[in-house]
Amino acid sequence: MGERGTIRIESLTRTYGRVVALDGVDLEVRAGELMTLVGPSGSGKSTMLRLIAGLDRPESGRILVDGQDVSRVPPHRRSVAMVFQDYALYPHLTVLGNLLFGLRVRRVRRDEAERRARSAAERLGLADLLDRYPDQVSGGQRQRVALARALLREPAVYLLDEPLASLDAPLRFATRADLLTLHRDLGSTTVHVTHDQAEAMTLGDRVAVLDRGRIRQLGPPQQVYDEPADTFVAGFLGSPPMNLVPGGGLLGGSPGLIVGVRPEDLILDADGAIEVSVDAVEALGSESILLTRATDGTRLTVRAAARCGVRPGDAARLRPDPARLHHFDAETGRRR
Hints:
The protein is α+β, with helices and mostly antiparallel strands. The protein has 2 domains: about 5-230, P-loop containing nucleotide triphosphate hydrolases (Rossmann fold, 3-Layer(aba) Sandwich); about 235-330, CATH 2.40.50.140. Helices cover about 25% and strands about 30% of the residues. It has 8 helices and 18 strands. It has helices at about 45-55, 95-105, 110-125, 140-150, 170-185, 195-205, 220-225, 230-235; strands at about 5-15, 20-30, 35-40, 60-65, 70, 80-85, 155-160, 190-195, 205-210, 215-220, 245, 255-260, 265-270, 275-285, 285-295, 300-305, 315-320, 325-330. A 6-stranded mixed β-sheet has the order 6-7-8-3-9-10, sandwiched between helices. Helix 2 packs across helix 3. The chain is globular.
């Protein structure tokens, strides 16, 4: 028996016809860890979550939870609880009814079920909403109901499938903080799937970047951002993405290389070596994003200070931070 909450995935493969959703994936999630899975649509992240939950079966490979192979174990016998993007609440039941439903199915005594449901509701700020129906509460409150329902299962592992995707930006920001607080309080193992890079960077102890059914990189979020393993990770993680220049060009380099630099590592400097014209300026309040074109036609995106004084049509000069240049093999895309 492994430590409670550990997950080990070995050579996991799942295909749908000719589409390879997961291609021999290996992954270990430590007990008590919050792991985020991030990648573009179709990268396999939600498929992996469904396989861990038992809602789908792999062609090959194993899934071990707490050291036990659960690859062929039905969902209700796995010590996991899943929160879906659409929350999957019963519309004809009140908030309290939704919380009680699973407990009644598991034949928990009525008074004990009511006590546990009300305790979970109190923990997640739902105590005043128990008599309302799902369509009478906000999206953020429905998300909390889904989390409370998962909490009541007392699982070894929580699986969150893009639970914040349908929330607007301010609520998403606040709810991310709530999720982190809840995770710290519970100390539980959590696997969180998202396509939102901010979620992946801020929530996870580690982040796994997926593409076409494979894990391209796994590590602490800042390390993955600072040291991308290949050009896919470099171009995917970060908004705006890393500038990638074949051969290096005006960033320096040589044939057979791709040289990358993040927008924040290109500095506006009157003495900079790179001369550009500014095509567009995205003023975001706290910062400005400059879309520029160098004299050789290379397009470079620059993250600059708010009110930087640069306008479309202006000429400017850039200085790349030499310590923050990234070198990738042009043939394989792998970091050098």
